[in-house]
């Protein structure tokens, strides 16, 4: 409980807020990349305590939310096939595909299971050699090492009834895509500490130089985020654009070398489509040639599934930071966690889910 108490101290939070107010002389717009940071900001009302004009733009840092619709439909197609045990983290079961979700498949008799680790899925494969066990591997650089290790173990142990449906995405190319968008209003970024704990920070200085934006790596507790905002505002006010690590208890410049070596062995960089955003070049991973036999898309012949996003859901605009969740007319009305129109209302890291959990009464009634 140490960090829950130590990094939520209200007296220290007030001091940081006072410092932010003292240094701020003009409006600034910064983006927190991570959905976990978004939830912390909204839950604790941090955005409402900042100086007038300092805006937090919620970025596309929710792994469930950016998983493209065509990958969801591929997952549904695989999960419906006889003899398949389809394994996933719980958030993915409610994410809507073109016409249904994984819960619908499960309720219709499909063997869809919630697991807490990809290694749980590998264990199921060992225990059920007559079944094809598939794990839905989504997320940013944070979750990728465990998925890579699972495929590595499957190959080492000769478990040939296990495969991985891969939808991994990478943060630095997304930052570049955001900055190159003609609608971009972002002047600085709070980078996700858990991503940098794996990958390190060496990819970020080139981005600060190329786009002239400060990037501050920070954590997820209130004091972490406030310190990140304080450092960011100081840079903006001083006209600097540098990388700063405000999360040194978890992040080093080099990152986790063992995890990075595993990622380099199992995955290779590829173009990826982000839900609501579109294709970002070299923004994701796929299984490398050495591990192609564990690619669920190839094994179940679903590589040709392509879909179009529904025009009714504005989650893409939310993910790009163009609108806040409550600015969508369906928010809290036609779109709720029980009946979501988009993934941002489903995920525990989705911006729409955060606003619904902590702001819906004031926003829907207004």
Descriptive account of the structure:
- This protein is an alpha/beta fold.
- It has 17 helices and 11 strands.
- The chain has helices at 2-6, 10-23, 35-43, 46-49, 63-66, 69-79, 102-107, 118-127, 144-157, 171-180, 193-199, 205-211, 222-238, 257-266, 296-299, 315-319, 351-365, and strands spanning 28-32, 54-58, 84-88, 111-114, 132-139, 162-169, 188-192, 215-218, 243-245, 267-274, 278-287.
- It has a 6-stranded mixed sheet, with helices on both faces. A 5-stranded parallel sheet has the order 2-1-7-8-9.
- The two termini are 37 Å apart.
Secondary structure: elements and pairs:
Elements: H1 2-6, H2 10-23, E1 28-32, H3 35-43, H4 46-49, E2 54-58, H5 63-66, H6 69-79, E3 84-88, H7 102-107, E4 111-114, H8 118-127, E5 132-139, H9 144-157, E6 162-169, H10 171-180, E7 188-192, H11 193-199, H12 205-211, E8 215-218, H13 222-238, E9 243-245, H14 257-266, E10 267-274, E11 278-287, H15 296-299, H16 315-319, H17 351-365
Parallel strand pairs: 1-2, 1-7, 3-4, 3-5, 5-6, 7-8, 8-9
Antiparallel strand pairs: 6-11, 10-11
Features of the shown structure:
alpha/beta; Rossmann fold; 5-stranded parallel beta sheet; 17 helices; 11 strands; 366 residues
